[in-house]
């Protein structure tokens, strides 16, 4: 929505003003005291806590990320500290998580050898995304570390660099040629195919990886905020008969919290899986 | 949100930051997080897991090998026992056979021995009988001789004191007697 709104920055101001007035009727005002506080995109840009104005600024979301990283390190340190051939419960759980990446993503798509080569990258991507996604439903953190573009973008760049590296290592001379000029196609078709391949392979891929993850997390957060803010509004501000509606929005909030857990796991899986697929396409003999 | 954006748009003032435009601090801290996690997994977690998986694989293989070994041993033992059993059977058969042979030999020997013993007893008995007959014959001869001489002396009134004469008479008598006996025997047969 905001993209659209920003795109219209160049539209005549009158129209914008009209649109704003029209929307005033639809969207409750947030300026009134005691009114409804709807979710806002500003929530993803909280005030700085440390190093304000520098390139090392730390705000609430950065802290949430650090917490996620610390949790990840703790879980996997505890889970792999004393590994036994016959695993205990906690070790089984950790192994199950690692097996999901190793067996279902790396080995299945890339085979044993390449799977082992790219396993550290894939494992890192999966668990970093998973842990940072899950902070979105954890009380007091309440925002996904991946809902700000930094993490999705960095990981997408990692995936991009990795699959291009994999392709060049596999086929130093012909990687770009095979990617852009697929064999078995009559040459005039290249006029259409090559630009499509160029855009889809080298431009769309990182963008979709980034945006898919970030938008999922932003929307998830906004949905949860919307439901719980509405509950707060109905139960505390309006009270009386409105409480019933508040119970309804609370129930929705609960259901969507569960849904967000699913989305968190799913997005982590999709990100790691797509990275593996891109690597697999790059190292495939025939493109 | 819309208000913020729209009011920013209308007023031309400071807009809400766009979520698709990254801030440097965002990128930097994301990269830091990524590098920490990557190094952690790469250098710590995954090698340990790999080591564990290798160990587990080895343990499984070891157990399989051990089971194979045990099975092989059990089979060898079974084979050995079977062979021993067969040996024992043939041995028993052989022993039985030889016992049978032995018993036959023993019986035969015993029989032979009994026969020879019987023959020996019979022959010694015969010899004894012969000896006794001879003795009886000799003693009879002398007794009969003496008796006959005495009788004849009495009859003829003449003492046959001359031993030589007496002897010759007796011998003649006996010879006659024998001849008559032989004639009787020859007539009988």
Automatic annotation (TrEMBL), chain B:
It holds the Pfam family ATP-synt_B. Its main location: membrane. The keyword S-adenosyl-L-methionine does not apply. It comes from the Bacteria. The chain crosses the membrane at residues 27-46. One of its GO terms (molecular function) is proton-transporting ATP synthase activity, rotational mechanism. Residues 60-98 form a coiled coil. It is found in: Cell membrane. Component of the F(0) channel, it forms part of the peripheral stalk, linking F(1) to F(0). F(1)F(0) ATP synthase produces ATP from ADP in the presence of a proton or sodium gradient. F-type ATPases consist of two structural domains, F(1) containing the extramembraneous catalytic core and F(0) containing the membrane proton channel, linked together by a central stalk and a peripheral stalk. During catalysis, ATP synthesis in the catalytic domain of F(1) is coupled via a rotary mechanism of the central stalk subunits to proton translocation. Belongs to the ATPase B chain family. HAMAP family: ATP_synth_b_bprime. F-type ATPases have 2 components, F(1) - the catalytic core - and F(0) - the membrane proton channel. F(1) has five subunits: alpha(3), beta(3), gamma(1), delta(1), epsilon(1). F(0) has three main subunits: a(1), b(2) and c(10-14). The alpha and beta chains form an alternating ring which encloses part of the gamma chain. F(1) is attached to F(0) by a central stalk formed by the gamma and epsilon chains, while a peripheral stalk is formed by the delta and b chains. This is ATP synthase subunit b. The lineage of its organism: Bacteria, Bacillati, Actinomycetota, Actinomycetes, Micrococcales. The gene is atpF.
């Amino acid at each position: 929505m905001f993209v659209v709104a920003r795109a219209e920055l160049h539209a005549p101001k009158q129209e914008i003003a009209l649109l704003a007035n029209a929307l005033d009727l639809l969207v409750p005002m947030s300026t009134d005291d005691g009114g409804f506080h709807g979710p806002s995109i500003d929530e993803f840009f909280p005030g700085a806590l440390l190093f304000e104005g520098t390139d090392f600024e730390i705000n609430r979301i950065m802290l949430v990320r650090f917490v996620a990283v610390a949790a990840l390190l703790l879980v996997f340190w505890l889970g792999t500290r004393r590994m036994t051939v016959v695993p205990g419960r906690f070790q089984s759980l950790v192994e199950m998580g690692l097996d999901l990446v190793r067996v279902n993503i790396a080995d299945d798509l890339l085979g044993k050898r390449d799977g082992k080569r790219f396993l550290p990258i894939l494992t890192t991507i999966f668990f970093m995304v998973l842990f940072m996604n899950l902070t979105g439903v954890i009380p007091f953190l309440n925002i996904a570390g991946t809902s700000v573009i930094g993490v999705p973008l960095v990981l997408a760049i990692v995936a991009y660099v990795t699959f291009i590296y994999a392709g060049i290592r596999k086929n130093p001379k012909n990687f770009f040629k095979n990617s852009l000029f697929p064999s078995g196609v009559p040459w005039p078709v290249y006029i259409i195919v090559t630009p499509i391949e160029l855009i889809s392979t080298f431009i769309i891929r990182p963008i979709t990886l980034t945006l898919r993850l970030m938008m999922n997390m932003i929307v998830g957060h906004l949905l949860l905020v919307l439901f719980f803010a509405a509950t707060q509004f109905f139960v505390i501000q309006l009270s009386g008969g409105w409480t019933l509606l508040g119970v309804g929005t609370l129930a929705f909030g609960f259901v969507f919290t569960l849904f967000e857990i699913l989305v968190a796991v799913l997005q982590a899986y999709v990100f790691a899986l797509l990275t593996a697929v891109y690597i697999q396409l790059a190292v495939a003999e025939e493109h | 949100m819309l208000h913020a954006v729209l009011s920013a748009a209308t007023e031309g003032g400071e807009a809400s930051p766009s979520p698709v435009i990254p801030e440097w601090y965002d990128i930097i801290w994301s990269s830091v997080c990524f590098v920490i996690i990557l190094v952690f997994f790469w250098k710590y977690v995954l090698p340990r897991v790999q080591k564990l998986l290798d160990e587990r694989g080895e343990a499984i293989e070891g157990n399989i090998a051990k089971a194979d070994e045990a099975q092989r041993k059990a089979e060898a033992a079974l084979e050995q026992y079977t062979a021993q059993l067969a040996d024992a059977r043939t041995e028993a058969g052989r022993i039985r056979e030889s016992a049978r042979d032995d018993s036959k030999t023993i019986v035969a020997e015993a029989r032979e021995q009994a026969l020879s013993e019987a023959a020996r007893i019979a022959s010694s008995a015969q010899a004894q009988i012969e000896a006794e007959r001879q003795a009886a014959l000799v003693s009879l001869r002398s007794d009969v001789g003496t008796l006959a001489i005495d009788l004849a002396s009495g009859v003829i009134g003449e003492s046959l004191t001359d031993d030589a004469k007496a002897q010759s008479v007796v011998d003649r008598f006996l010879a006659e007697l024998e001849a008559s006996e032989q004639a009787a025997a020859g007539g009988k047969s």
